[in-house]
Each structure stands twice: as C-alpha cells, then as structure tokens.
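[job 4471] stage=fold_predict status=RUNNING
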Amino acid sequence: MASKATGAEPGTMEALTKYHAGNVYLSGRSKAGTAPTAAVVSALTGTVSAATTGGLPLFVATDQEGGYVQVLSGPGFSTIPTALVQASSGAAKLRADAATWGKELRSVGVNVNLAPVLDTVTSPEFAPSNAPIGHFQREYGYDPGNVSLLGNAFADGMKDAGVAPVVKHFPGLGRVVPNTDVSKNVRDTTTTRDDPALEPFHTAIASGTKWVMVSNAYYDKIDPANIAPFSATIMDAMLRADAGFTGIVLSDDLCSAAQLEAWSDADRALNFFGAGGTMLVCADPTSIPAMHQAVVQKATSDPAFRAKVDAAALTVLQVKAGQ
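[job 4471] inference complete, writing structure tokens
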C-alpha cells in the first residue's frame, strides 16, 4: 500500500490503522534527503500496535532502482545510475555499490527495495521500443546470463545491507512494446513456461531471494486468458512448483495501472489472492476499503479461498520472522 515519499496522506494512515494493512511503500519522488525521509518512515511505523497490525512490524519498501526510477534522493542518498550503466561496472563493484545504496535505505527505516529488474530485453536495437524497461535503460543486459549475473549482484548487495531485494517483473517484460502502467491489453506473445529468459529469476530464487514481483502483462504462450497476477499457472505452477519459490509473490500495482481498468477493485484483490498471490501492491489508498471488504467477505463464506488468504498471511509472517 502506497504512501507518498514526502509524507503520508490520510488514506494511507487509514489503511494502516482501520484496515490493518501490514506493509507500506514510499512512492512518487522525494528530494528531501535522509533525515526528512526517516521522519516520514517513523510516522508510518509508529502506527504499529496490537490494534492495528497485531504488533507486527511493517515492511517498508520503496523503488530505488536507479536512473529514471529512484524515489528517494537528496542529502544522504547517492545518485544511482541506470541498470545499464550499473552493469558496466562489473558484478563485484556493483554488489559493493548496491550495499552502499542499501545502507542508505536501511538508515531511514526502509527494509525492502522494489528492485532489481531481471527482465531480459531482447536486443539493444529493440530496447527503445520496449516501453516499460528498455526505453528507460532499466535492463542489466540483453542475454539472460548477463542479466542474471549483474542483476543478482545488485540483489546480493541489498541483502548485504539488510534490505530485502524484490526481483521483477516475473516472467519478464523485456519482449513487450507497450507499458502496462499506461496501456491496456499488453501481451507477451513469445515467452514460454521454460523460457531461457527465466534464468535470472531462477538464480535469484536459488540464492535465497524471498520476494518476486509478477508483471501485469498477458503471456499468450503460458496463460493467454489471464494477466499474470490472476494466473495460477504463473504464480503457483511456475513460481512455486517449477522454481521452488517459498517466499512472497508480490503483485505490481493493481490499483492505478491501465492494464487493470476492466476489473473492479474488489475483483482485482479476489482474483490475485485466488490465483495464489501473497501480497498485493496498491498505489491508490482509496482502493483499499473495497479490496479489504471483498477479501474478508469471501474468506468468511468460502473455505478454499480462506485457506489461500491464510497461507498468504503465513508466508508474509515467515518472511518477517526470518529477516
């Protein structure tokens, strides 16, 4: 659930206190630096109590990839280059640099980073046409081996700093043209269930990464009827069964992305948890009440759905206990 990086809105605080949202991420852009950001985080984590989150600490995340996607900047925060530039420094230096960037996050109370991008863009020539990734130089390279080596060096550096990396956007956005944030019916027509481009994600999971974000695209050769966050094939079969992933299956933003316009807030939440999702990302706090009500109502009347919600909650608790 989102909070503006410059300060929490009333809807965010209500989601934490009234609707018991257990985690929050800082969104937008803040150039205020470390001290004001720490104050924002403290205001959010100060909501934790037996009455709100059962006394369990919040995961506090942000999007600190670098380049065009760096939420927190200003005094005390490094200016992080794009992934493509990060890659040029080699794995060892990149891991060390990422540990530095991670320590900056940790110093303000952020313990989860919605990075690195492990999508493999098919070629340098295609990259400018790949609106979500290549256009912004968010890729670590153009073959799965390099993306795996360098993207996971970033992930390991974050872990070194005590910040959980979130690898994204499974099973990959490197072959699409439009961006799911601003376009509808975004489809990958190439990627398969055993695609070589999955290697960076499988490497991350094998090395102990506990967070995987799924993309909002359709994958015609995997499950053409369902976008990835509504696809049991992608979240249960590919991540849980094929890859052996036991951590948090995180959605991309399900509240403001154009790709989701066809579904009500309630159905977005029900479809995601029903298909095996663990934690839902919502950029618009005003969507939380409808989502919360729908999930509670269905869990009360449908034992199979309740079991999925309970399993998701248990997974989050297990990851919190292990951090």
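[job 4471] summary: The CA atoms of residues 218 and 226 lie 6 Å apart.
[job 4471] exit 0
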